[in-house]
Amino acid sequence: MEIIDEKVRKKWKNYLWQSAIAGLSIAVILVFFASIVGLVIVAAVGATSFTVFTIPNHKTARARSVFGGQAIGAIVGLICSTFFLDPIRGGVSLAALLMVTLNAEHPPAAGTALGLSIDPSPEGALFVLAASGILSLTGFLLSEYLKDLT
Question: Is 148 part of any domain?
């Protein structure tokens, strides 16, 4: 087992700039939205940025999965925080079920459901949707240059 991925030598430029764009995207998004969101939601969007820019050809990185999965996570998290006795477990479970059923699988969206189940915030939900749209659009615009780094 190698500690450093063997593809780094061939794709080192992609490793550097794609990782940088993942961080830069979150930094730019936070400039506009940092004052209205909780840390758990920011973490979920950070995981989305990782997905979009490091495994761009994976099913979970396509726009349907990113935006659809995050929309499901946000809606379910808000609903569960209001109507479920155990909103944390209910939010993650229901979001997972809906994502796989609706073919919009995006693992970071489980974090969104969790975060909004714990700390329900319509502003946080809007942040997730806006950030998902921005990240998906950026990924689309850079798609011819992005390589899977896995």
Answer: no
Domain count, the chain: 1
Per-residue pLDDT of the chain (150 residues; tens, 9 = 90+): 788 888 888 899 999 999 999 999 999 988 887 777 777 788 899 999 999 999 999 999 999 999 999 999 999 999 999 998 888 888 999 999 999 999 999 999 999 999 999 999 999 999 999 999 999 999 999 999 999 998
Report if pTM > 0.85. Answer: yes
The distance in angstroms from the start CA to the end CA of the chain is 15
Q: How far apart are CA 22 and CA 134, in angstroms?
A: 12
- 146: in domain: no
How many angstroms separate the Cα of 62 from the Cα of each of 10, 36, 98, 106? Answer: 25, 27, 17, 9
Is residue 52 a part of any domain in this protein?
A: yes
